[in-house]
Amino acid sequence: xxxxxxxxxxxxxxxxxxxxxxxxxxxxxxxxxxxxxxxxxxxxxxxxxxxxxxxxxxxxxxxxxxxxxxxxxxxxxxxxxxxxxxxxxxxxxxxxxxxxxxxxxxxxxxxxxxxxxxxxxxxxxxxxxxxxxxxxxxxxxxxxxxxxxxxxxxxxxxxxxxxxxxxxxxxxxxxxxxxxxxxxxxxxxxxxxxxxxxxxxxxxxxxxxxxxxxxxxxxxxxxxxxxxxxxxxxxxxxxxxxxxxxxxxxxxxxxxxxxxxxxxxxxxxxxxxxxxxxxxxxxxxxxxxxxxxxxxxxxxxxxxxxxxxxxxxxxxxxxxxxxxxxxxxxxxxxxxxxxxxxxxxxxxxxxxxxxxxxxxxxxxxxxxxxxxxxxxxxxxxxxxxxxxxxxxxxxxxxxxxxxxxxxxxxxxxxxxxxxxxxxxxxxxxxxxxxxxxxxxxxxxxxxxxxxxxxxxxxxxxxxxxxxxxxxxxxxxxxxxxxxxxxxxxxxxxxxxxxxxxxxxxxxxxxxxxxxxxxxxxxxxxxxxxxxxxxxxxxxxxxxxxxxxxxxxxxxxxxxxxxxxxxxxxxxxxxxxxxxxxxxxxxxxxxxxxxxxxxxxxxxxxxxxxxxxxxxxxxxxxxxxxxxxxxxxxxxxxxxxxxxxxxxxxxxxxxxxxxxxxxxxxxxxxxxxxxxxxxxxxxxxxxxxxxxxxxxxxxxxxxxxxxxxxxxxxxxxxxxxxxxxxxxxxxxxxxxxxxxxxxxxxxxxxxxxxxxxxxxxxxxxxxxxxxxxxxxxxxxxxxxxxxxxxxxxxxxxxxxxxxxxxxxxxxxxxxxxxxxxxxxxxxxxxxxxxxxxxxxxxxxxxxxxxxxxxxxxxxxxxxxxxxxxxxxx
Length: 872
Ligand SMILES: Nc1nc2c(c(=O)[nH]1)N[C@H]1C(S)=C(S)[C@@H](COP(=O)(O)OP(=O)(O)OC[C@H]3O[C@@H](n4cnc5c(=O)[nH]c(N)nc54)[C@H](O)[C@@H]3O)O[C@H]1N2
Ligand SMILES: Nc1nc2c(c(=O)[nH]1)N[C@H]1C(S)=C(S)[C@@H](COP(=O)(O)OP(=O)(O)OC[C@H]3O[C@@H](n4cnc5c(=O)[nH]c(N)nc54)[C@H](O)[C@@H]3O)O[C@H]1N2
Ligand code: SF4
Ligand SMILES: [Mo]
Fold this sequence. Notes:
single chain, binds iron/sulfur cluster, Rossmann fold, Phosphorylase Kinase, domain 1, 30% helix, Prok_molybdopt-oxidoreductase, alpha/beta, 6-stranded mixed beta sheet, Dimethylsulfoxide Reductase, domain 2, 7-stranded mixed beta sheet, molybdenum, 6 domains, binds molybdenum atom, globular, binds ligand MGD, 18% strand, 28 helices, 4 iron, 4 sulfur cluster binding
């Protein structure tokens, strides 16, 4: 029904970040997709970032799970589904509904999510369904509900374009919401928007900042309390709007008690911030994980919301607080009630009238009557045997949860674990009894909601590989086999959407903000043609912004300001003297199951690393590119040292993306403190106390191979190349026989070309077969210095000049590390253009080299390269 002729592009939505860009995907006759931005989609108007542009490179069959597996053997669907239904039913019969749990994901489509939630809360009768959104958006949800009485994002993307001042707090928008960042950057060019970045780290986002506040980690609540006190001092509290608010005077009292010193900012920086924010009526405060992932994240959210409420700067064009969501359907998950403490359609699990309404609508046999376990507590319950059957869908908690090693052990020790994923070999799937092959982006139909409440279709563009099935179908099959076939009898995603829309009408009648009942009767044809739209869509409300009218969703109709007492961060000890910050890189998505398949996405940053301030590095005797061993009370990681003053002293940063498949000792989640925010249950993933030491490597290595590399040493990190793979290696003990080691590593039996310099401890090996470079290994007692891009381009080819020297011959250019992933332009090429051709603007570089002219994700980096290397 959705498969169109291969030459016609199909409108769909990007499966990565919460910007929710529209994509035109054109299936190719021989398989695969051509990807373009959808010029008509209101999130991106044709733009795509580098991850979206590279989607076509990630839809192959490599690594895909094609059949269900039970205990490692292939099995049929009936056997696997019967087994799950039987194990869940037996466990519930013996130990009650709360002995089972689902752990799901903000990357599920709304229809998948709706079915999971219905099965657990309405039919199993427990609320033990939680989601990776607990690690992501829970503090925003809790903050919204405290302030507004509902989980409502008041504003729209265009507010960032209409504002005079945009504040980005704990958000690296340039890398994490690149198209929204580009929209902001473009608006700033035309209207001179003031941009303020609040982040302890100097990120790529600071490229467009008029002011960067590198505040003391965790001091955001203090900063926004100081702002609230200043708002009051300047007489900017809007009396008419404040009449609709509770809690103003308590919030002001708390704000006035806050000391500026706790932010660690200079007086002049702080004054500039207060001046810019208060003097711009059109101000938007965007916030993300630097706020949410904190032991007092909900208070920080409310400290921000307080300032917008007090001034009435909310819900009008160009103004408001804006929680940007991470995952493509973080918002949809909240709408269907995917969190353990919510019901469908923003209804409340603890409200009997709400419960009765949902139960009646579903004709559900036993409704959950109390909130279920939140992620961290859920895996504790798995560990101590309270949860005996667990189904993990579309998320990889063995990597992404705090205290990840402990979580992995808990999963491994659980009586029964099912995992649904596109890939059968993730760190989590490896631990499951049953692994189910799910269809992924491009293969499934449904809807997602982006950060501005816009619901868009994701459309099937490719056939399901092997026996893979849609998540909603798998869940519905299990629901039927557990005895509820009538309630789970849909035959298409469209029918589920219609049911969800009808339920939202019931919710809307109870006062819920989420009401899309206009679509309650949607037909399959209309669902196919569905255009992106903003919720709500009902007889009484159509899209638009919320709260400008001062009407909120608390029972008394008022909004609420919260008195926030800023919590100082946990003190550091002598044993663990550093505070580890964690987050994302530009070109990878979480645990890299998809972006890791694309060589160009792997070339920007190909290895796990630790950003360390130069003085810290010197004090620890850690040279650039050496390896650091990082220990916390919870685990250990080994990371490449990147010395940079982008981070503050004592506050190193590490990205989160590497796994057992890509760099087993670079799993940063293993280090992370499981402390949670007491209100939202969200973990404080941005501040773990750690100790850092040099990793005692006896040797370092770098390898390339046309076939997959299977390293077995203390440290390794693997990445895809256009013609094979590369790996960084290191070990504490030097092998006797490097040739034997190399043959094992590459699975080759021919003899390599060998260059050895015993005095300097260098060994270089190259395997050449039929005149082509098959594999090469470079070993050194120090971090291996050679041109990785040169070796990568020589791999699989017959040009062997300079291969064993590790650098190109004089006639060949060396690109260096990749900056522009779209056109493959490396750092050396850009620097040469800057220093020898005098090209000193991003536009001039773009014209000469094309770098930065497609998706634009690398423009901040090009700009900073130019700035750092400007000819005298
Ligand atoms: N390229 C890419 N984009 C993504 C993702 C991805 O994996 N890769 N994931 C998506 C998802 S799910 C999410 S949730 C979003 C996350 O998007 P962001 O929240 O923008 O990304 P992070 O890198 O997690 O963290 C943001 C910043 O918080 C800062 N920070 C740390 N501590 C503090 C603090 O105490 N105060 C303040 N003010 N800032 C602090 C960090 O230094 C970091 O730069 O990104 C989405 N987009
Ligand atoms: N230290 C630290 N930890 C963090 C964070 C941090 O900033 N610091 N950020 C947290 C945040 S905000 C987030 S959102 C999480 C993300 O963490 P995860 O959710 O664990 O990461 P993903 O790699 O996105 O996992 C998605 C999984 O679903 C699979 N998949 C993709 N599409 C489908 C599908 O359609 N169906 C099914 N069944 N499977 C599919 C993928 O192959 C992959 O295995 O990490 C959290 N962990
Ligand atoms: S900004 Fe990039 S990752 Fe996010 S939705 Fe758009 S194309 Fe996808
Ligand atoms: Mo997230």
